[in-house]
Structures are given as C-alpha cells and as structure tokens.
Amino acid sequence: MKKNNKIIVFLILLTSLISCSKDDDNSTPSNYLTSYNFSFSTEEFQVQYNSENQVTGFETVDPSSSKLTKVNNEITRNNNVVTGIGNATLTYNSLKQIASINDGTGNGQTELEYDTSGRLINQRTNYFSGSITETKNLTYDSNNRIIKIIIHIVSSSINEYYKYNLSYDSQNNIKESNLSSSSDNSTYNLLETRLYTYDSKVNPLKKVIELLSFGNFYLCPSYPFSLFETIKFNYLAAYALNWTCNNNLTHITIVSASGEISNATYEYTYNEDGLPTKVIITDEDGGTYSQNFFYTRK
Fold it and tell me: Is 11 helix (H, G, I), strand (E, B) or coil?
C-alpha cells in the first residue's frame, strides 16, 4: 500500500474506525472502556469517569518514559450539562441545543443552526479571526440519518466545496461514502469512494461518546477537509453523528477517482461479553497494526 493509504488506515484506526448514525445503546452496562493503545506507539489513552459513571476527561500516558501527558481535557458540567472541555466552552439555546462552541484559543468559533425537528442543519466555523471560514450543510433521510454533507471553505486563496454522500446498512452503520469536490457547488468531481463492512458486536467507543451526555450531538475536532475524526479537544465542532459505529469495522475498500483500489481488514479478539479486546489491521501490502482495549466492571 502506498504511504498515503497507510495514513488513511491509521486515521480510520484512530477514529475508532468510522463515524456512524446514532442508534439504540446495546452495549453491556457493566463494562466501561478505561484505556486503549496502539502497536505503533508507546502511549496509552485513558478515559476517566466520576462516581456517576460520567466521562470526566481523557489522559495520555507514555509508560516508556513514565510521563503523564495531560492536555487539559477535563470536562466541565453545570446542572449535568457539559459547558466546557479543556479551554473550549459551549453555549446553548432556549431548546437546550448546542448553539456555539469557542475553542478558547481564539483560533475557532463555531455557530450551529437546527431545523424544527431539532436536527443540526448548518454549522459555521471561523478560524483564525475569520481568515478561514468553513460552513457545513447537512441533509437527512426519513430515518433522521445524515445522507449528505456539503462543506464550503473560503479564505483569501480558497473557495472550494466538498460533498459527502452517505448510505447505511441495516444496523445503521455507514456502508458507503462518496467524496467529491466542486468550485461552484454545481458540478462535482468524484474524489474517492469508501465501502465498509462490520461485525455484529458492540463498538466499545460508542458508549464512551454517549456517556459524554450531549444529547444527540457529539464533539469532535474540525479540520477543513475531514468528516471523521478521533477524540481530541483542540479544535471543536459539533455534528449529529456519533464518533463511532454501532458495530466494529471488519473491512474497508477505498476506490480513488482514477480507479486505484486499496483495502484494509480488521480481525478482532473478543472477551466473554462480546467486546473487542484487540484488533489487528492488515493493509494492502500485508503490513499489520494493532489496537488493544481495556475495560472495568462497574
């Protein structure tokens, strides 16, 4: 696999495999994900909980240096409503929907707009005092799943549109995404197609996200050309998408606009509760990478 495709595999691994539509929580109530690590790093990523089993923060530990790296990821709540994550602050409208997110550094301010059904339909982020503006427009199907996202990026040198078309399997996991670009929001050119398949087991990171208690919306970083991201709290935005699928990704096929095809497979080991304890990712060239999951019972 070429270098850029290996990076794609890493990104998908780091994002807990892909963002998907919200469904009923069928995770095992007594199991809580406490940490996970990767074969290509000595760092361990830890999840903290309070006595009510709410997620209160994230830490990164590097056992090889016995050094704790804590990137101000503490979660602040007011009357059980999340009002801050690290330096970032959240405000709400009269319907208790997230109205704005300020990253606290002056580099990102996001405003959100909803339809009468309470679905996020528009998101506008100004970066670096407005020198870059990113807007997202979201379209839903009759099952309230996002089926199209149009991203418009404007700066002194950029005026580009990017469009994601999404489709779902019977378990509400995204099974196909098509990314295209345009200079006028009229004629789009296909950039790539991604096809996904899953197992029938619970994705452990889904529960972590739901325990953040943001209602239907979850926080994830916002980068200009990306839809699916990992857990970080440097630059913040809100989508009506989970960070994680209902199930665990087992195979991905990426088809470029030129027809070049790359694949990656994911093989899991599960515990007695059906939760993954390890996944081995094999790329197009046969290279392997792994991720381990650790839990506690409460």
Answer: helix
The secondary structure of 221-247 as a DSSP string is E--TT-S---S--SSEEEESSBSS-SS
Helix H or strand E segment including 6: helix 3-14
The CA radius of gyration of the chain, in Å to the nearest whole number, is 19
**Burial label, 40 (beta-carbon count in 10 A; 0-12, 13-18, 19+):** exposed
Q: How far apart are CA 265 and CA 252, in angstroms?
A: 7
For the stretch 215-248, pLDDT in tens is 444 444 333 223 333 333 333 333 323 355 788 8
Q: Which of 145, 246, 166 is nearest to 199 (CA)?
A: 246
pLDDT digits (tens, 9 = 90+) for 121-169: 898 888 887 788 989 898 999 998 888 989 899 999 999 999 989 899 9
